[in-house]
Design a protein that fits this description.
Shape: globular
Strand content: 15-25%
Helix content: 25-40%
Order of helices and strands: EEEHEHEHHEHHEHEHHEEH
Distance between the termini: 49 Å
Number of helices: 10
Number of strands: 10
Strand order of the largest sheet: 1-4-5-6-7-8-9-10
Largest sheet: 8 strands, mixed
Length: about 280
Amino acid sequence: MISYEGDLYRPPSEADSLILQATIGCSYNECAFCGMYRGKRFRVRKLDELRAEIAWARENLGDVRKVFLADGDALVAKASFLEAVLDELAGAFPRLRRVSVYASPQSLQVRTTDEMARLREKGLTLYYLGIESGDDVVLDRLTKGVDAAEMIRVGQKAHAAGVKLSTMILLGAGGRGRSLEHARESARVVNAVQPRFVSTLVMTPVPGTPLADEAERGEVDELTPVELAAELREFVAGLELEGTIFRSNHASNTLTLRGSLPKDKGALVDALDAV
């Protein structure tokens, strides 16, 4: 059977996917707002363990169509290891449509365009990339480990490999003082990357993280719902996308919005103006 170590996390859109822990934890694990993997030591799992779990899933779960490779940034594992996992999945599930993974900027730095293209051909077609912000001041505060220029570079590298990107922006990450810069610069970075999906979440202090410690000291501005709507309005108004699905429907959001860009941009801005 499948054995999971510690708490398991996945994107909301992977609710119906088979989840395999190709790696345990997160190799970077420094983001100030993230508490998902702080209790885990990063390691790549043994291929034989995954082969056994895939075989169990084939016998017990039937027609698997989607697979999500956990934990935090399985993409950082050696390309040869990932290729072997993808080969096992393709052999076990003939009707498999998609394999996806969280992709940290650090793992995208490691992978070459050719490696990502080969992995895409074997089925790894979607990466979830937390951009969080396009403002260098905010990125530094969040300890993302890269600046906006590097975020654009690695995002474009994945795009060049033919991989679909699902990107996330953290509303409220700049506080009141940098709300405008955060919104505008985030739109600039997303425009440069041209992801297939973009979603917004609200930054929330999680116990056990540096962000929570800052919040306890009164150093974190938590924006009101109306202020968050104003920030989101500025972000959406700045988007110039050629074919992107937009979602603001995570549980942390107080306002649920969805649409396709550029087609629905005007309607989204109008809805936010009404708020």
